[in-house]
Amino acid sequence: MHFRLCDYALDLVQNAVEAGAGLVVLKLVEDRTSFILGIEDNGCGMDEATRAKALDPFYTDGVKHATRKVGLGLPFVKQALDATDGSFLLDSKKGRGTILHCCFDLAHVDTPPIGDVATLVLQCMLLPGVFELQVLRSRTTEQGSSQYELSRRILQETLGDFCRGESLSMLRRFIRSQEDDLK
Fold first, then answer.
1. What confidence tens digit (pLDDT) does each residue in 40-65 have?
2. pTM of the complete model
3. What sign does the CA torsion over 61, 3, 17, 28 have?
């Protein structure tokens, strides 16, 4: 089981990348009462039958991970949402991609903590593969609302290869500064 909402998000972004998405949009919207996790991708998508099976923890397509006998990402997030009165939407079209929308009720006693969003964004940026990741993050508090947007492509063009220590350090500091500005 995942301990933080960011754990679910990382797992689902990784699923999108592994499904062959060239573009993944990660939306993280937080206010006093809810945390919305949205993921849209242009990966391989699913037909209706596969989409129905994707919520079964004992189903895996056997393609992305030939040795796995289970697929737990979507079933875990759906279970957490059901247990905490959240909402869940999964829309997918074969050959076109997938849209996932999850709304967690932060007031529910069983809703996991959000976790470290800056680390989540960094981990998503560092996933292996050739893909564009766009992060749309907003937060509303009593003091007001703020937001930021990040593009993996632009950050790579600006900072260079994330495998270089200096680039990775700058990326980490930049993402943390964006998240700190939301407070």
1. 999 999 999 998 888 887 766 555 54
2. 0.91
3. positive
Q: Please give the Cα distance from 13 to 150 (Å, whole number).
A: 15
Sorted by where each starts, the structural domains of the chain and their CATH numbers stand as 5-181 (3.30.565)
- The amino acid at residue 95 is G
Would you give the end-to-end CA distance of the chain in angstroms? Answer: 29
Torsion over CA: 128, 129, 132, 136 (sign): negative
| Separation in Å, CA 89 to CA 39, 74, 123, 128, 164 | 11, 11, 24, 27, 38
Would you call 104 helix, strand, or coil by DSSP?
strand
Give CA torsion, residues 147, 73, 102, 96, to 10 deg: 80
For residue 11, count other CB atoms closer than 10 A to its CB. Answer: 15
Short-list 113, 109, 115, 91, CA closest to 40: 91
CA distances (Å), origin 166, targets 133, 170, 172: 21, 6, 10
Q: 127 with 14: CB under 8 angstroms?
A: yes
